Amino acid sequence: MPEEAPMKNLVCEKSRKALQFIEDVTCNADEVQRKVLAEILSRNANVEYLQRYGLNGNKADREAFKKVMPVVSYEDLKPDIDRIANGDTSQIICSQPISEFLTSSGTSAGERKLMPTIEEELGRRSLLYSLLMPVMDQFVPGLDRGKGMYFLFIKSEAKTPGGLLARPVLTSYYKSSYFRDRPYDPYNNYTSPNETILCQDSYQSMYSQLLCGLYQNYDVLRVGAVFASGFIRAIKFLEKHWILLCNDIRNGTIDPKISDPSVREAVLKILKPNQKLADFIEAECTRESWKGIITRLWPNTKYIDVIVTGTMSQYIPTLDYYCDGLPLVCTMYASSECYFGLNLNPLSKPSEVSYTLIPTMAYFEFLPVNRKNGLTNSITAPTSLDQKKDQELVDLVDVKLGEEYELVVTTYAGLYRYRVGDILRVAGFKNKAPQFNFVCRKNVVLSIDSDKTDEVELQNAVQNAANHLLPFGASLTEYTSYADTSKIPGHYVLFWEIYHSGTTPIPPSVFEDCCLAIEESLNSVYRQGRVSDKSIGPLEIRITERGGHLTSSWTSL
């Protein structure tokens, strides 16, 4: 016990400093933002991109920056991104070397966007992570006396022609020394050994993480995943494999399907035969209903840590069913472009979640938007952003309560006045720093997991598929779509109304071909979710008559 006191004191001091940091940067938000922009511009004074617009970074102030630098989207930057990806090491957008590309869930021409990053950005991401538990401890004390069961996974990575890694931001973080070699912290003590998280095989990773989480069930005080969809996939995995998991717990073994030597070694260091626990898990899993299974198997759980804002809100009823009404906590707001901020009131209802942007992370600006007729995905913004009057974006401290904006960032890694595509609503303020509700992702019409399909992409995919109808004297007259998450994994559903003027019946195989044609036309994030991650189910086309009566249904299986 005496050894625990110094550790407790150290953790308390770290928490105090973290909360004081939040207080300081939010009280002086505009001053911090000016310093951040000045630092970014002075560091990158000689880069090609700034000089292209006549900006002298060493002498430039915020006003000069706003006057000459355009507001841009990914398509504007793509030629420079491609140069870097192809091996050009000159100072194109950043004075520091681009260390890797972070692949965005957003796409360009069907492929993942490549977001440049530099080595020191890992430190900024780590800083934001370090603020989460000090905030949470104010609302749920005692989290240092147990563990977190988090289902965390890495995804596949590639190399650009120039040899730079291209991978998702979380894969980059989990593989970094900031995560792998993190010092012991009782507030960040996980049931999953690093080896199970870093396992490339998704089945072995999920199985071994669940096995460790079940074995340590009474130590677990909080559970979670990054997205709500990922957490529900873990529950569905448990439904399917609980017999094997119970057998391993009963015998202190690990199933032969888990063949990764480092995973087996790490799990067997934890696992010992436990007949009583195996019988308990078996009894719970064989009950008629799985309602409240999380609180039944992990009875000390205080909350569920998952993202349930934006399109993830569709999973809230399913989470409530399995978690018996435990609080759903959204802790932070981040993307491949930049880590933005955190939720300072983590026990708020999902519909009321707001994120406080941390002013040190990047330089933030805001483009006013108007949503047409209250529709989430119908958004208008100033049309001619190349005109100076439209470039006068709103600074962080000048946004107005209740107004909606598109987030625009300037980062240390070489993005300047970049439109992220997230629509945010000002919900309040923490000192001088605004707090935002996440409203939606601009133009996204369908999303199941990390996929984001927009109207133009869906229209093109449907058109490609509808061409299969032409030889039979048929054409598509109207369609609509939605993301069906009533089963896991969720899937896209399209309702087609068809005009058939020919006499030749349309064979069932044609509609199956239509399903495949749509899936093959969609972006690489969707295709990875379908094939590799198994996080998206087969697309379904439902044929309707005029008036909306369903006549038949087809899938891509």
Description of the structure:
Residues 355-441 form the GH3 middle domain. Belongs to the IAA-amido conjugating enzyme family. Keywords: Ligase. By secondary structure, the chain is of the alpha+beta class. It contains 18 helices and 24 strands. The strands form 6 sheets. The chain has an 8-stranded antiparallel β-sheet with strand order 9-10-11-18-17-16-12-15. It has a 4-stranded mixed β-sheet with strand order 2-1-5-4. Residues 373-391 have low confidence and may be disordered.
Question: Features of this protein?
Answer:
557 residues, alpha+beta, 8-stranded antiparallel beta sheet, 4-stranded mixed beta sheet, 18 helices, 24 strands, globular
Summarize the structure.
With 557 residues, the protein is an alpha+beta fold. 41% of the residues are buried.
Rounded average pLDDT = 86
Count of DSSP strands: 24
- Strand content is 15-25%
The radius of gyration computed from the alpha-carbon positions, rounded to a whole number of angstroms, is 25 Å
Kindly state the percentage of residues in helix.
25-40%
Q: What is the subunit organization of this protein?
A: single chain
The poorly predicted ranges are 373-391
Largest sheet data: 8 strands, antiparallel
Structural class: alpha+beta
Overall geometry: globular
Largest sheet, order of strands side by side? Answer: 9-10-11-18-17-16-12-15
